[in-house]
Backbone:
């Protein structure tokens, strides 16, 4: 769970917790609360509002998760919502809550973009007690009537510094305004800049503050760049970096989840690109063998999570790749600090999707870093074939709600109206109402929003359809 330095001398069994939670903690071998848990949990269990600052790896998910699970009844009604800035963090939080609740029959559902919207809607309509999700999809599902925010009493913002920066702030306010019966609010984060605390005070003025000391981190002097790329083409960008590696290069690739470590290792192998994976679920002796082999230079590429990489000191690392941008700002510095050692040249690449832009700005501002945008490296001379083929990734052109804007060469002058355009797509492309977003019509053109899950098939069908006997030109607006 955490290093000994973060543990307190408070035992979980001192608190008279629900037996389901206590059993889960015991099975994991968690006897003592971490410092943030020891301070935050007793306050939160009384239903008080909490603002907690804690470093990554110090157990903050359980600090809000335990009180949240305890105060939630198993009745099929949504009572608590936990909002995170990324889908990866939503998955991690959901996984931790799922094992923490043990035998308590709560339904916990993750809600984020890039997944089947109709399937998610059905699950929500079936009765869910705790929702963990990202702001865009939560708003989307609320507007569609699948999440009833007015009935939810508990709100938690994880990585609150990112949730309350200007990028997400309007979304959070929209959600808060709908939560008219909110009784408890918890904010947890690794950092709380002054402007974030001011933003928090607009909707949580009577909170108990549980804060830790600021973290001092040394910033390494290495070349840092970011590549703007959607989820589907991260592998393509990584292939470009891999194929440019020299004989004496070594690379560490960071992902945010253990599952992604395994997936990425498998996918690279499929493209005949060699890499070894390392994460906390592997047996200790296997992990040790992988680390030794990497240290000795036998393996050139190591894919790992932040937790697994702790304690790895390899002077030969020349390249660090943030395949997933880290969920907290200090992890970025720890990651890139693994290269450029012993006077060697080092380079750090970060893959940044549309939803990561705010976090990149946050990292840059916090540590006063220049992380300019760059294209991936060019293919080496004499190589014409991509190591990994580039794909069409609709997420790269979708908005925060997962909608892609399609421009049509017909407008009011051609008899187009909001109603008949929607009907046209509904009938011809067999799109249901959930898959069609806003429709905007001018004199000679129109824009129709289509959900990214459906846009490719819709474009193929509509390319052959006529409007009043005339062909229609369709193109994607970025």
Residues:
């Amino acid at each position: 769970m955490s290093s000994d330095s973060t543990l307190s001398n408070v035992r979980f069994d001192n608190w008279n917790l629900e037996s389901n939670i206590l059993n889960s903690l015991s099975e994991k071998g968690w006897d003592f609360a971490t410092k943030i848990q020891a301070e935050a949990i007793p306050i939160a269990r009384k239903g008080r509002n909490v603002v907690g600052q804690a470093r990554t790896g110090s157990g903050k998910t359980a600090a809000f998760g335990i009180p949240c699970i305890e105060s939630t009844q198993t009745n099929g009604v949504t009572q608590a919502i936990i909002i995170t800035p990324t889908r990866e963090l939503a998955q991690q939080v959901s996984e931790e809550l799922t094992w923490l609740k043990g035998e308590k029959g709560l339904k916990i559902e993750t809600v984020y973009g890039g997944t089947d919207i109709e399937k998610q809607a059905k699950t929500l309509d079936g009765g869910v007690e705790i929702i963990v999700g990202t702001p865009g999809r939560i708003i989307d599902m609320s507007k569609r009537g699948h999440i009833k925010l007015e009935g939810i009493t508990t709100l938690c913002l994880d990585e609150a510094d990112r949730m309350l920066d200007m990028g997400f702030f309007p979304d959070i306010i929209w959600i808060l305004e709908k939560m008219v019966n909110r009784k408890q609010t918890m904010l947890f984060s690794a950092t709380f800049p002054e402007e974030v605390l001011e933003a928090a005070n607009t909707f949580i003025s009577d909170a108990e503050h549980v804060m830790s000391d600021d973290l001092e981190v040394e910033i390494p002097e290495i070349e840092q760049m970011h590549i703007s790329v959607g989820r589907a083409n991260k592998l393509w960008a990584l292939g470009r970096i891999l194929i440019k590696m020299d004989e004496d290069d070594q690379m560490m690739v960071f992902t945010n989840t253990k599952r992604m470590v395994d997936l990425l290792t498998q996918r690279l192998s499929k493209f005949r690109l060699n890499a070894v994976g390392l994460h906390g679920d592997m047996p200790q002796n296997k992990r040790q063998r992988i680390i030794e082999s990497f240290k000795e230079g036998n393996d050139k590429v190591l894919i790992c999570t932040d937790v697994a990489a702790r304690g790895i000191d390899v002077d030969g690392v020349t390249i660090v790749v943030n395949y997933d941008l880290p969920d907290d700002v200090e992890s970025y510095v720890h990651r890139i600090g693994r290269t450029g050692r012993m006077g060697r040249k080092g380079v750090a690449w970060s893959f940044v999707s549309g939803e990561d832009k705010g976090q990149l700005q946050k990292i840059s501002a916090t540590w006063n870093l220049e992380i300019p945008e760059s294209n991936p490296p060019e293919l080496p001379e004499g190589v014409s074939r991509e190591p990994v083929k580039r794909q069409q990734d609709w997420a790269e052109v979708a908005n925060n709600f997962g909608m892609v804007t399609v421009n049509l060469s017909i407008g009011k002058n051609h008899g187009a109206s909001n109603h008949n355009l929607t009907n046209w797509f509904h009938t011809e492309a067999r799109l249901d109402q959930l898959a069609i977003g806003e429709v905007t019509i001018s004199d000679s053109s129109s824009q129709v929003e289509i959900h990214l899950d459906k846009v490719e098939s819709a474009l193929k069908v509509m390319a052959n359809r006529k409007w009043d006997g005339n062909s229609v030109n369709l193109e994607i607006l970025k």
